[in-house]
Amino acid sequence: MAAVSLNNSNSHMDKLTSNIFSILENNFLFSYDNPSSLPLQQIKSTTGKVRILSIDGGGATDGILAAKSILHLESSLRRKSGNPDAHIADFFDVVAGSGIGGVLAALLFTRGKNDRPLFTADEALKFVTENGGRLCRSSKQGVLRRILRSPVKVFDRTFGDLTLKDTLKAVLIPCYDVTMGAPFVFSRADAVEMDGCDFKLSDVCAATTASRGPAKTLSVDRRTKISAFGGEVAMNNPTATAITHVLYNKQEFPFCNGVNDLLVVSLGNGEPLAAIGGNGAPSRAALVKIAGEAVSDTVDQAVSMAFGQKRKSSYVRIQANKGLLGVEQLNKGVNMLVLADEMLKQQNVESILFQGKTCSSTNLEKLEFSAGEIFKENERRKADVLPVVLLNQTTTSSSARSSSATTLSAISSR
Length: 414
Known about the structure:
Layout: H1 6-31, H2 40-45, E1 50-55, H3 64-81, E2 94-97, H4 100-109, H5 121-136, H6 143-148, H7 151-159, E3 170-177, E4 182-187, H8 188-193, H9 201-208, E5 215-218, E6 225-229, H10 231-235, H11 239-248, E7 262-267, H12 284-307, H13 311-314, E8 315-318, H14 336-344, E9 347-352, E10 356-362, H15 363-380
Parallel strand pairs: 1-2, 1-7, 2-3, 7-8
Antiparallel strand pairs: 3-4, 3-6, 5-6, 9-10
């Protein structure tokens, strides 16, 4: 793809240059007898870690486990910050969500009234509790009732004409484009750079949750057309995509050079019973779930190994296993909120590449620990001069950015 416009790039560099010289000037005038001794590494040390939230596609709880995890995180961050009106979007720089996780990302990170997030974590939990089942699975009811209860109608009512450009932070939501035969990631960074990459959020949510036939999706300028299947097919666990986006997007994350510069919270939605086993040959749908969960676990293992010793403080994966609860007899009548609570009480599972998994503290304890690390980063930034994130705000180019590393299928007018 063509490179981002020179004017826009210069604007970001001007901000960085100004901030760097401000540091040097302040240290020269007030802090250092010998300013020439100021190492470049100290400039880097004044910046913090990019905070990433990743949310899996649907699982045993149709998004309720992830929504419950987010509610717990938001409640902890409100308590630690002393701000009862704080939102989860205030404490993360990047969000990636697949399937129902993409819907949660859109609900929590879209600009609403007074430039605040559209939904709180509690409101998002209520949304997936009321709508999760029909958002994740196609209804087998009559045609008229299916139309009236269509997920598209739900998304239209929720988001109206809001688009990717109306999100507050870096947002990444995948689907699978059957026209190109490749994954496609809806990205705020690309939308800001190019109208052909800006989509209505209602269409983005419909695309990432599409399960029974492709969702025809047009960009706002109607020049880009994709035929989308759900994000769970493309990348059920979008954590690696979010990390790649940050590491290769130097315009918005100029000082992030590796995993040591990241704080990542990755939320699963509970492994379904179909992925655990059962009697007889698995159905085709069960095989799809098994494949999706296997890929999610592989991503978890690879990311965990990439963090190395830092994974205990900088990478947290929340996942649970419905089968471990001894509730195999439970069916569609189960109270999903109760099930999610029980899953959060389970021991957290840490993946070790080629060595299986080990159990540590509970999921709730890991979430509480993550909230503490995220809050500490938030407080540390108050003393910063250099920015950790330079989020692009304006469209100055008709070409897609070359650095976002998120659009995996070709963008063209078709």
